[in-house]
Design a protein that fits this description.
The chain has twelve helices and twelve strands. The protein is 43% helix and 17% strand. By secondary structure, the protein is an alpha/beta fold. α1 crosses α3, α5 packs across α12 and α10 packs across α11. It is elongated and about 85 Å long. β3, α7 and β4 form a beta-alpha-beta unit.
Length: 336
């Protein structure tokens, strides 16, 4: 057995052409089952493994998709990362994960491009319009997942955050709540802006204004501080809509442990995302469901279509949002 067997060695032992060896190791390539078996047998005997990096250099196709995230503590994003990786692998691509800090996304993307990636997914992070335009001009599709930037040429996949916020508002009002507060995520996030706008719209439709507002910045600690700010008010809220489930869990912990109040008897709480923990008995959180499976399928479809067509164009996909009522709010009849 050679120390570093080559595809030529495999071709010689299997008595096939070198191109047949290449096709045998390429998912979806045209090669007969008999030839594939001969190639795999020869490769096994020689201890040969195809060099994906070398193949990428020769073909100009790395089959790599970069995923850029600013944080993973929100339970929604680890789920997205796993499902996205699996679906892309089924399509013959691999995911490279890159972490970034707020304000440093462009710097990280410049490093990403050195890996000759064929597409970029931005999750819990955004890209400047100028760099997104540069990616588009070089044929690299960029998809922002769970948010968007109106001025950017990058594509986006989101749930209907405006309608989701509206559904929460109408539900809480239908349960008889009048002092309804909102805990925001990141002020500069399209996700937060739309959920808040929809929430205020739903309240206005019922003739109610928001009782109070605090900012949690999508962090567990920030949400706890925001909850304490609201609960220390002279006239505290009787219901709180929190911009995502990750923060809502923190808010519920503060309400129960910090103030000894009951949910939903003293204060109702609703979140957004419907992560698996939302259905746990300890939280039983009313929330808005945005399907990770549907969002990922749409993201992969945009990426692969534009990679294979060699044409980058902006697409905005908005998926339906659905209210899931659980024990953190009263099960009340919705108003029509």
């Amino acid at each position: 057995m050679k120390a570093n067997p080559t595809s030529e060695d495999v071709a010689r032992l299997a008595n096939v052409s070198q191109s047949a060896v290449s096709r045998a190791f390429t998912p979806g390539a045209s090669v007969s089952q008999k030839t594939r078996e001969k190639v795999l047998k020869a490769a096994s005997e020689l201890g040969y493994r195809p060099n994906a990096l070398a193949r990428a250099v020769i073909s100009g196709r790395s089959q790599l998709i970069a995923m850029l995230v600013a944080y993973l503590d929100n339970q929604f994003y680890p789920i997205v990362l796993e499902k996205l990786s699996r679906l892309l692998q089924q399509r013959g691509y691999q995911v490279l994960l890159f972490m970034t800090d707020p304000g440093k996304q462009d710097e990280v993307v410049h490093r990403i491009l050195q890996y000759q990636v064929q597409g970029i997914v931005m999750a819990s992070a955004t890209l400047s319009s100028s760099l997104a335009r540069e990616c588009a001009e070089t044929g690299i599709p960029v998809v922002t997942l769970n948010r968007y930037v109106s001025s950017s040429p990058s594509s986006s996949v989101t749930s209907d955050n405006i309608e989701g916020g509206r559904l929460v508002a109408r539900h809480l009002v239908s349960c008889g709540h009048e002092r309804i507060a909102f805990i925001a995520g990141a002020e500069d996030s399209s996700t937060n802006r739309d959920r808040e706008a929809g929430f205020y719209k739903g309240l206005a439709e019922e003739g109610i204004a928001v009782h109070a507002r605090a900012v949690g910045n999508y962090s567990f600690e920030g949400a706890a501080d925001a909850a304490r700010e609201l609960l220390e008010m002279k006239l505290r809220p009787d219901a709180i809509f929190v911009a995502n489930d990750h923060m809502a869990f923190s808010v519920m912990d503060v309400i129960r442990s910090g103030y000894g109040l009951r949910i939903p008897d003293d204060i109702a709480v609703a979140g957004y995302d419907d992560v698996p923990e939302a259905s746990w008995k300890g939280y039983d959180l009313t929330t808005v469901s945005q399907s990770a499976d549907d969002m990922i399928a749409a993201t992969v479809s945009i990426l692969v279509d534009q990679i294979e067509q060699g044409a980058v164009r902006k697409r905005a996909t908005v998926l339906p949002a659905r209210l899931i009522v659980r024990g953190s709010t009263q099960r009340c009849a919705e108003r029509g």
